Amino acid sequence: DQQVKQNSPSLSVQEGRISILNCDYTNSMFDYFLWYKKYPAEGPTFLISISSIKDKNEDGRFTVFLNKSAKHLSLHIVPSQPGDSAVYFCAATLPNRDDKIIFGKGTRLHILP
Amino acid sequence: GAVVSQHPSRVICKSGTSVKIECRSLDFQATTMFWYRQFPKKSLMLMATSNEGSKATYEQGVEKDKFLINHASLTLSTLTVTSAHPEDSSFYICSAGPRDEKLFFGSGTQLSVL
Questions:
Q1: Among A60, A92, A100, B98, which residue carries the largest CB count within 10 Å?
Q2: Tens-digit pLDDT profile for residues A25-62
Protein backbone atom coordinates (compact mmCIF):
# COMPACT_ATOMS: atom_id res chain seq x y z
CA ASP A 1 0.00 0.00 0.00
CA GLN A 2 1.55 3.22 -1.16
CA GLN A 3 1.13 5.84 1.51
CA VAL A 4 2.65 8.71 -0.44
CA LYS A 5 1.51 9.07 -4.02
CA GLN A 6 2.77 11.21 -6.83
CA ASN A 7 0.36 10.38 -9.61
CA SER A 8 2.10 12.36 -12.33
CA PRO A 9 5.29 10.63 -13.42
CA SER A 10 6.33 13.64 -15.49
CA LEU A 11 5.48 17.27 -16.06
CA SER A 12 6.61 19.78 -18.67
CA VAL A 13 6.49 23.50 -18.00
CA GLN A 14 7.62 26.50 -20.00
CA GLU A 15 10.52 28.44 -18.56
CA GLY A 16 9.28 31.39 -16.56
CA ARG A 17 5.91 29.83 -15.83
CA ILE A 18 4.74 28.23 -12.62
CA SER A 19 5.45 24.55 -11.97
CA ILE A 20 3.02 22.74 -9.69
CA LEU A 21 3.93 19.30 -8.42
CA ASN A 22 1.28 17.37 -6.55
CA CYS A 23 1.41 14.76 -3.85
CA ASP A 24 -1.31 12.81 -2.06
CA TYR A 25 -1.02 10.75 1.07
CA THR A 26 -3.19 8.25 2.87
CA ASN A 27 -1.87 8.21 6.43
CA SER A 28 -3.39 10.99 8.51
CA MET A 29 -0.71 10.41 11.16
CA PHE A 30 2.04 11.94 9.04
CA ASP A 31 3.33 14.99 10.85
CA TYR A 32 6.01 16.31 8.54
CA PHE A 33 6.25 16.53 4.77
CA LEU A 34 9.31 17.11 2.66
CA TRP A 35 10.22 17.67 -0.94
CA TYR A 36 13.50 16.45 -2.40
CA LYS A 37 15.06 17.25 -5.72
CA LYS A 38 17.18 14.73 -7.54
CA TYR A 39 19.45 15.07 -10.53
CA PRO A 40 20.53 11.96 -12.48
CA ALA A 41 23.18 9.82 -10.73
CA GLU A 42 23.03 12.03 -7.64
CA GLY A 43 21.39 11.56 -4.29
CA PRO A 44 18.25 13.52 -3.52
CA THR A 45 18.78 16.92 -1.94
CA PHE A 46 16.40 18.44 0.50
CA LEU A 47 14.34 21.28 -0.96
CA ILE A 48 11.60 22.41 1.39
CA SER A 49 9.43 21.00 4.14
CA ILE A 50 6.24 21.70 6.00
CA SER A 51 4.93 20.68 9.36
CA SER A 52 1.41 19.31 9.58
CA ILE A 53 0.43 22.22 11.80
CA LYS A 54 0.96 24.64 8.95
CA ASP A 55 -0.72 25.02 5.59
CA LYS A 56 1.97 26.95 3.74
CA ASN A 57 5.72 27.32 3.75
CA GLU A 58 7.64 29.55 1.38
CA ASP A 59 11.34 29.65 0.56
CA GLY A 60 12.34 31.84 -2.33
CA ARG A 61 10.86 30.50 -5.54
CA PHE A 62 9.52 27.42 -3.77
CA THR A 63 6.27 27.23 -1.86
CA VAL A 64 4.67 24.14 -0.41
CA PHE A 65 0.95 24.05 0.36
CA LEU A 66 -0.65 21.49 2.64
CA ASN A 67 -4.34 20.61 2.64
CA LYS A 68 -4.81 18.17 5.48
CA SER A 69 -8.50 17.61 4.93
CA ALA A 70 -7.77 16.49 1.39
CA LYS A 71 -4.52 14.76 2.38
CA HIS A 72 -2.83 16.66 -0.38
CA LEU A 73 0.23 18.81 -0.73
CA SER A 74 1.75 20.63 -3.62
CA LEU A 75 5.04 22.25 -4.49
CA HIS A 76 4.94 25.46 -6.48
CA ILE A 77 8.00 26.74 -8.29
CA VAL A 78 7.76 30.21 -9.73
CA PRO A 79 9.27 31.31 -11.98
CA SER A 80 10.50 27.98 -13.34
CA GLN A 81 14.11 27.88 -14.48
CA PRO A 82 16.07 25.41 -16.62
CA GLY A 83 17.98 24.20 -13.57
CA ASP A 84 14.72 23.11 -12.02
CA SER A 85 14.57 20.18 -14.45
CA ALA A 86 14.94 17.18 -12.16
CA VAL A 87 12.97 14.49 -10.39
CA TYR A 88 11.04 15.74 -7.37
CA PHE A 89 10.20 13.39 -4.54
CA CYS A 90 7.48 14.02 -2.04
CA ALA A 91 8.08 12.41 1.33
CA ALA A 92 6.45 12.15 4.72
CA THR A 93 7.40 11.14 8.23
CA LEU A 94 5.55 9.81 11.22
CA PRO A 95 5.89 11.15 14.76
CA ASN A 96 7.95 8.29 16.12
CA ARG A 97 11.60 7.77 17.01
CA ASP A 98 12.59 6.15 13.77
CA ASP A 99 12.37 9.29 11.66
CA LYS A 100 11.52 6.86 8.92
CA ILE A 101 10.86 8.68 5.75
CA ILE A 102 8.34 7.46 3.21
CA PHE A 103 8.81 8.59 -0.35
CA GLY A 104 6.54 8.92 -3.31
CA LYS A 105 7.72 7.61 -6.66
CA GLY A 106 8.76 11.00 -7.89
CA THR A 107 7.72 13.37 -10.67
CA ARG A 108 10.13 14.28 -13.44
CA LEU A 109 9.92 17.97 -14.20
CA HIS A 110 11.03 19.23 -17.61
CA ILE A 111 11.49 22.96 -17.99
CA LEU A 112 11.08 23.87 -21.63
CA PRO A 113 13.02 26.78 -23.17
CA GLY B 1 24.37 23.23 7.27
CA ALA B 2 24.44 19.59 8.21
CA VAL B 3 26.23 17.41 5.72
CA VAL B 4 26.18 13.70 5.17
CA SER B 5 29.15 12.31 3.30
CA GLN B 6 28.92 9.03 1.41
CA HIS B 7 31.64 7.21 -0.49
CA PRO B 8 32.58 5.80 -2.81
CA SER B 9 30.37 7.57 -5.31
CA ARG B 10 30.78 4.81 -7.81
CA VAL B 11 32.08 1.26 -7.67
CA ILE B 12 32.39 -1.43 -10.28
CA CYS B 13 33.14 -4.92 -9.07
CA LYS B 14 33.15 -8.50 -10.18
CA SER B 15 30.39 -10.86 -9.21
CA GLY B 16 31.11 -12.59 -5.91
CA THR B 17 33.10 -9.80 -4.32
CA SER B 18 32.02 -7.70 -1.35
CA VAL B 19 31.63 -3.96 -1.46
CA LYS B 20 31.62 -1.57 1.49
CA ILE B 21 29.88 1.80 1.38
CA GLU B 22 30.50 4.40 4.07
CA CYS B 23 28.14 7.07 5.31
CA ARG B 24 29.39 9.81 7.62
CA SER B 25 27.68 12.66 9.36
CA LEU B 26 30.16 15.52 9.25
CA ASP B 27 28.90 18.08 11.73
CA PHE B 28 26.34 16.32 13.86
CA GLN B 29 25.96 13.07 15.72
CA ALA B 30 23.58 10.57 14.24
CA THR B 31 22.33 7.77 16.44
CA THR B 32 20.27 6.64 13.50
CA MET B 33 21.14 6.48 9.84
CA PHE B 34 19.06 5.12 7.01
CA TRP B 35 20.07 3.16 3.96
CA TYR B 36 18.03 3.32 0.77
CA ARG B 37 18.18 1.67 -2.58
CA GLN B 38 16.78 3.15 -5.72
CA PHE B 39 15.38 1.09 -8.51
CA PRO B 40 14.92 2.54 -12.00
CA LYS B 41 11.66 4.48 -12.33
CA LYS B 42 10.77 3.73 -8.73
CA SER B 43 11.02 5.58 -5.50
CA LEU B 44 13.78 5.20 -2.99
CA MET B 45 13.25 2.03 -1.02
CA LEU B 46 14.24 2.01 2.61
CA MET B 47 16.46 -1.00 3.20
CA ALA B 48 17.35 -0.69 6.83
CA THR B 49 17.70 1.58 9.78
CA SER B 50 21.18 1.68 11.23
CA ASN B 51 21.34 2.16 14.98
CA GLU B 52 24.53 3.17 16.74
CA GLY B 53 25.70 0.49 19.12
CA SER B 54 23.00 -2.02 18.26
CA LYS B 55 21.77 -4.19 15.44
CA ALA B 56 20.26 -2.65 12.38
CA THR B 57 16.57 -2.93 11.71
CA TYR B 58 15.88 -4.34 8.28
CA GLU B 59 12.78 -3.77 6.20
CA GLN B 60 10.74 -6.73 5.08
CA GLY B 61 12.27 -8.51 2.14
CA VAL B 62 15.80 -7.19 2.69
CA GLU B 63 18.37 -9.92 3.39
CA LYS B 64 20.36 -8.95 6.46
CA ASP B 65 23.09 -11.46 5.65
CA LYS B 66 23.41 -9.98 2.21
CA PHE B 67 23.48 -6.35 3.25
CA LEU B 68 25.55 -6.04 6.39
CA ILE B 69 25.21 -2.80 8.30
CA ASN B 70 27.57 -1.62 10.98
CA HIS B 71 27.01 1.60 12.91
CA ALA B 72 30.16 1.67 14.99
CA SER B 73 30.14 5.33 16.00
CA LEU B 74 27.81 8.30 16.15
CA THR B 75 29.18 9.60 12.85
CA LEU B 76 29.74 6.51 10.76
CA SER B 77 27.58 3.76 9.33
CA THR B 78 28.72 1.24 6.74
CA LEU B 79 26.77 -0.93 4.35
CA THR B 80 28.54 -3.99 3.00
CA VAL B 81 27.05 -5.78 0.04
CA THR B 82 28.38 -9.30 0.45
CA SER B 83 29.02 -11.62 -2.49
CA ALA B 84 27.59 -9.07 -4.87
CA HIS B 85 25.72 -10.22 -7.94
CA PRO B 86 24.52 -8.30 -11.00
CA GLU B 87 21.03 -7.99 -9.53
CA ASP B 88 22.55 -5.99 -6.68
CA SER B 89 23.56 -3.29 -9.13
CA SER B 90 21.75 -0.17 -8.04
CA PHE B 91 22.05 3.28 -6.55
CA TYR B 92 22.46 3.17 -2.78
CA ILE B 93 21.87 6.24 -0.64
CA CYS B 94 22.23 6.91 3.06
CA SER B 95 20.55 9.60 5.06
CA ALA B 96 20.76 11.03 8.54
CA GLY B 97 19.84 14.14 10.41
CA PRO B 98 19.89 15.80 13.79
CA ARG B 99 16.95 14.70 15.89
CA ASP B 100 13.67 16.42 15.02
CA GLU B 101 15.18 18.19 12.05
CA LYS B 102 15.21 17.53 8.37
CA LEU B 103 17.03 14.57 6.94
CA PHE B 104 20.09 15.01 4.80
CA PHE B 105 21.10 12.59 2.13
CA GLY B 106 24.50 11.36 1.13
CA SER B 107 25.54 11.79 -2.47
CA GLY B 108 24.80 8.16 -3.22
CA THR B 109 26.83 5.22 -4.50
CA GLN B 110 26.31 3.74 -7.92
CA LEU B 111 27.13 0.04 -7.68
CA SER B 112 27.70 -1.93 -10.84
CA VAL B 113 28.34 -5.64 -10.51
CA LEU B 114 29.76 -7.32 -13.60
A1: A92
A2: 999 999 889 898 877 656 677 789 899 999 999 999 99
